[in-house]
Amino acid sequence: MLTLPPFLLLLLSIPIILFLTPQLLLPKTLTAITTTSDLDELDDLNLFQRATTLSSPDLTSPVSTHKIAFLFLTNSNLTFSPLWDLFFSSHAPLLSVYVHADPSSPFLLPPSPSFRLRLIPSKPTARAHPSLISAARRLLAFALLDDPRNAFFAILSQHCIPLRPFPSLHRALFSPSPSQSFIEILPPKPSLWPRYIARGATAMLPEIPFSRFRVGSQFFALTRRHASLVVRDRVLWPKFRLPCLPSSKHSCYPEEHYFPTLLSMMDPKGCTGYTLTRVNWTFIVDGHPHLYSPEEISPELVRKLRKSDSGHEFMFARKFSPGCLKPLMEIAKSVILKED
């Protein structure tokens, strides 16, 4: 029988160790890597770990120089980039812009002379699917790592527009200090039950009892502390990552539940409970809010969209059709970007 020298046995064992190590180091919340989605999950996990361990905030700079990170979730080109360019103009030192563009759709970087736009490595997304949560967390993680002065993180879509000039937004977020996140967290209602059991009657237990389950807008502005909390989460995410049952396809909107539930459970007093993005749910078509047409655009509409029933002012609005760009640009300087 052939006996191998000890050093040769060690040499032969190295490939085996390298193959097994990732499996042994997987956190308990992840399954073994057997599918593409699991590989994506591990890739994201590595990014999130770096974001929470290496992204120290810049505490030496005054609040007046802290930046707002604008995080665009899109599956098409940024139709309203000319309007955003006007909004960002002359304020580049106080903002960062990041885009997560679905790789299955062609995306062209818009001309952006007023700001630096960073297109982050993205992965496919789908409506009513946890991939939208992953994309938002990915944007937050990249923005945390990219600039220690990013103090607020605003999630937006390609259908969003600004309603007020940049200085108004900066004052609203940082006055007196960036202490609260602007995220909609609605009170629990019995009507949430179908959404709660969309993955199965007991799928959320024991971590999320029905009494702690929340709903809100998928568009929000988080403080750096809350952005870090979101990408650090390993407890609630596995629950929302579960696929919905085929019979629950009309009740499956994980992106509207994960963020409000997580922050409501972890730090309810650190959240305003409302979003800064106005959406018109008066006319719902296939689960989508009202889509504004060019004929509806007017100074009166912009002023109406700014106001809310709860006393605060909206800073953004959605959802606008591509044809709205021209009439919006016509009133951009005189209405949208004009200080009151």
Automatic annotation (TrEMBL):
GO molecular function: glycosyltransferase activity
Pfam families assigned to the protein according to its UniProt record, in alphabetical order: Branch
GO cellular component: membrane
Record's signal peptide: 1-19
Domain of life: Eukaryota
Sections of the chain in a coiled coil: none
Subcellular compartments: Membrane
InterPro entries in alphabetical order: BC10-like, Glyco_trans_14
Keywords: Glycoprotein, Glycosyltransferase, Membrane, Signal, Transferase
UniProt membrane topology term: Single-pass type II membrane protein
Protein name, per record: Core-2/I-branching beta-1,6-N-acetylglucosaminyltransferase family protein
Organism: Dioscorea zingiberensis
Lineage: Eukaryota, Viridiplantae, Streptophyta, Embryophyta, Tracheophyta
